[in-house]
Amino acid sequence: MKKFLIITVILLLLPLCNASGKKIYVAEIEGMIAQGSVNQFDKAIEVAEKKGEILIIELNTNGGMAGSMEKIIKKIENAGIPVIIYVAPAGAVAFSAGTFILMASHVAVMSNATVIGACQPRIINPATGLPEKADEKEINAYTAIMKSLAERHGRNVSMAEKFVRENVALNEREAFEAGVIEIVASDLNELIEKIDGMIVEVKGEEYKINVSDVYVEKIKWSIRDKFINYVSDPQIASILLVIGIFGLLFGFLTPGYHLPETIGAIFLIVALYGLSFIGINTAGVLLISLAFIFFIIEVLTPTFGFWTTIAIITFIFGIMLIPAEEAMYEMPLNWYTTFRIASLAVAIFLTAFFSYALVKAIKAKKKKPRIGEKDLVGEKGVAITDIKDGGQVKVKGEIWKAEADEEIKEGEEIIVVEQKRLILKVKRA
Prior knowledge:
This protein is of the alpha/beta class. The protein folds into three domains: 17-222, 2-enoyl-CoA Hydratase, Chain A, domain 1; 233-366, no CATH class; 380-428, CATH 2.40.50.140. Helices cover 50% and strands 20% of the residues. It contains 14 helices and 18 strands. It has helices at 2-20, 35-51, 66-77, 97-104, 136-152, 157-165, 172-178, 188-195, 223-231, 234-253, 259-278, 282-300, 306-321, 333-366, and strands at residues 23-30, 52-60, 83-87, 93-95, 107-110, 115-117, 122-124, 131-133, 169-171, 183-184, 199-202, 205-208, 215-218, 380-383, 391-395, 398-404, 413-420, 423-428. A six-stranded parallel sheet has the order 10-5-3-2-1-13, with helices on both faces. The chain has a five-stranded mixed beta barrel with strand order 14-15-16-18-17. Strands 4-6-9 form a three-stranded mixed sheet. The longest helix has 34 residues, at 333-366. The protein is elongated, with a radius of gyration of 33 Å.
């Protein structure tokens, strides 16, 4: 019994002992580098600084927005503890913006079968939607940033320069031999073992990493962090903007339903929230607004497709141009292709929608109008009151005054036999 009580007490006190010691904080960050990633780095560094010995970020990214990348680099440089970037798990990559973040770390580590590099800045060609090499001015600027990071942390400056100028990519062994990373570790345990006793420079002062008797704690991400990462993706934010605008347009064309304009307004607000982190190209906003106006003109004054065609072309150029150019420099290469495909898909959907509307409008124009007192003769309806000397009926969704030569009870089906201006003569059907 005594042994049981002693074991129980030890188990109860063990968490308290863990809480009082130093910790290694580990956080996983994957996907596009966007504002959500900035928030994740901010939270992880803040938590680790309070009660941590070091912070390890397990990174897996194809790249992301240049502005977000620069914010993350500043956060790492100003951290009060060593921030270790670990490209993991096996098969992970840290391309483009991810490599810049890796080079900003106090200790750069890669797992097995991982790749880094391919940092040459790119821009979108609005005519094709495809990525193109940025101009020499931007390449020089990003080369200077990369070289500065490599020099500050004692890494191979010439190879770091090749990441940007020549778009070089290296696996973990090549990167280690080239001197752009410090450690290759197959898992977290091996990483912790290898960094123990390392001396790094943190905010201008030497810092000896001591992880011989610390505890590992994972940092969890909130739904808000993940949500911001999604909506700050230029592709998602741009498409949400378009859906929002055309939701409002559809609501304008079909008053009384309220749902389209409500959904449109929500999507529009979320899109603007996402785009606020990215930056917006004024030309893109103006072109999308112009496309919106062209669609309204088509609806109000049908020209059998002319304004719709112009609107679709204007819209495609607008959605391609809407993200600010400076935000695009370090986006993943495949992002440009998916952005173009998504833009074309939305354009095709809009073309189909308005083509259908135009066909209906043409048919309506060709249909001979039925005007006159015999318009409703022969139509069926229902009595909504008793009809004797007079009453009311509902025909084709409208309520009419009615009279009959026979008594008709409320709810009985009727048929119109004569129309006298605003009064229908009916009989039991």
